[in-house]
Amino acid sequence: MYSKLGRTVTFIFGVIILGWLTWTFVVSLIVVGGQIQPMAEFTKNDILFLQHLPRSFAGNSAVLYTHPQTGSVFLGYVLGVPGDALKTEPIEDGTEPIHTTLSKNEYFVITETGPENDSRTFGALHRGYIRGAVFKQILRAD
């Protein structure tokens, strides 16, 4: 039989493990700035809740993603979801136009830091590079 102390320690340990699993795999807090580039909606030092588990993302969702070529982390918007046919126009900096239909698990993301950091340069972004969706702004820095 467990003593009262044993049950208490087991309970506390369980709560800690459950909290860690939730924090790691379900939600987390992120602070904009540093490695995460700000954008108009979210500015430097804003604190955001990030949801890790969505299986898919709706258009215009704010997401945190890893650049597939550089490994840098960006906040951006989903502009294209699986099944969407996309056609972009060339822009002044020489970025080539894109004509594609997004496959399963592919998204077209755009950021305000420039086309070199989004799908206008590297093309469709696989779901695996999207770390999660911003679902709540906790604290606005200004």
CATH superfamily: Umud Fragment, subunit A
Rg: 19 Å
Dominant shape? elongated
User: Count the helices. How many?
Assistant: 2
* Major sheet summary line: 8 strands, mixed
User: What is the name of the CATH architecture?
Assistant: Ribbon
Jot down its keywords.
two-stranded antiparallel ribbon, 2 helices, alpha+beta, single chain, 142 residues, 10 strands, 18% helix, Umud Fragment, subunit A
Brief overview, please?
The chain has helices spanning 4-25, 119-122; strands at 27-31, 36-37, 47-51, 62-66, 73-80, 85-87, 99-101, 106-110, 125-126, 130-139.
Describe the structure.
This protein is of the alpha+beta class. The chain has one domain: Ribbon (Umud Fragment, subunit A). It is built from 2 helices and 10 strands, in the order H-E-E-E-E-E-E-E-E-H-E-E. Strands 1, 2, 3, 4, 5, 8, 9 and 10 form an 8-stranded mixed beta sheet that branches. The mean pLDDT is 79.
